[in-house]
Amino acid sequence: MGTPEFAVASLERLLQAGYEVVGVVTAPDRPAGRGRQLRQSAVKAYALEKGLPILQPEKLKSEDFLQALRALKADLQVVVAFRMMPREVWDMPGYGTFNLHASLLPDYRGAAPINRVLMAGETATGVTTFFIDDQIDTGAILFQRETPVGPDETAGELHDRLMDMGAELVVETANRIADGTAIPRAQPGRAGLHTAPKIDKAGCRVNWDRPLDEIYNHIRGLSPYPAAWALLKNGAETQEVKLFRVAPVKEAHSFPPGKLFWDKAGMKVAVPGGYIRFLEIQLAGKRRLEIKEVLNGLNLAENAQMA
Question: How many domains does the structure of the chain reveal?
Fold first, then answer.
């Protein structure tokens, strides 16, 4: 059970390990793009390529879906980047239903663990498999793998590493459940747990009043998706700018946050504790470009600033 590319790696590894995947459950095709044409999920595309039976329920409690799921007679259900499911679904197979989560639970429960870990400036994260229960990401832990987080690693880079690490852990978890050596343990309860709620557009906006390191982590934690953004105020014109690659420059100064500096070689913005140097950005209505290419076609007013 899964939808995005992150889930494809686990499905592929299960097949390579010799497991009989009796069915794949994924999201219904959705309109996407300017033409609003129906687009299938990454998991569906892979399942079609491998000739696997596919279920795409709108509602997980619908009797038609539940009957179709029962008919598959699965011994075990594996969930990777799907959605919250009712007891009728996760309690169905004899060996249960386990989920792969891209954090070291109980920290960073929620929809955006990869982004939130980087935005918080964490130096380590990992993947966890756990049995699903009635709550979100609270079930008994099966196995975990930890990995250091690079100081300049982006969400896209960490996503790909955890995708591969998670796929290996999914196979190991399935093996251990099958041979009876998996021993689930309750998640520890403690104060001060970090959470990973879904990120909306407002939460992606850069606040130039924040400290240098915090701004840098915010931007790399959202790159390339959903992407940090800010406003470029250029004379009488204001436009939205997405920020994909930047570099922090620690340096004492007295300039107000948001003040822009640029020359033919580059552009930087003043923030508390230094500057954020732009390396790759995207102006509204344009494609993502290296900063030198952006500056070639951009006329900036003397008082241009970021907001």
Answer: 2
171 in a structural domain: yes
237-250 and 260-263 strand pairing: unpaired
Supply angle C-alpha 41, 217, 259, rounded to 5: 115
How does pLDDT run across 61-111, given as a tens digit for each residue?
Answer: 999 999 999 999 999 999 999 999 999 999 999 999 999 999 999 999 999
CATH number at residue 276: 3.10.25.10
- Tokens 């955890």 locate to 162
Cβ count near 273 (within 10 Å) = 17
CA–CA distance, 57 with 158 (Å, rounded to integer): 30
Long-range contacts of 226-230 (CB under 8 A, 24+ apart): 226/115, 226/199, 226/201, 227/282, 228/204, 229/201, 229/204, 229/205, 230/205, 230/206, 230/306, 230/307
Angle at which helix 42-50 crosses helix 5-16, to 10 degrees, equals 30
For 246, the domain range is 201-306
| Residue with tokens 């960490």, as numbered in its chain | 158
Count Cβ neighbours within 10 Å for each residue of 150-170 and write b for 16 or more, e otherwise: eeebbbebbbebbbebbbebb
The Cα 129–Cα 107 span in angstroms is 13
Whose structure tokens read 């997405």?
242
Residue 194 covered by a domain: no
| Model confidence pLDDT, tens digit, residues 1-49 | 999 999 999 999 999 999 999 999 999 999 877 777 889 999 999 999 9
Domain membership flag for residue 192:
no
> Is the domain of 172 the same as that of 45?
yes
Together in a domain, 167 and 207: no
Q: Of 227, 237, 233, which is closest to residue 280 (Cα–Cα)?
A: 227
Q: What CATH number did the domain enclosing 151 receive?
A: 3.40.50.170
Per residue in 155-170, pLDDT (tens digit) is: 999 999 999 999 999 9
b/e map 210-223, b = 16+ CB within 10 Å:
bebebbbbbbbbbb
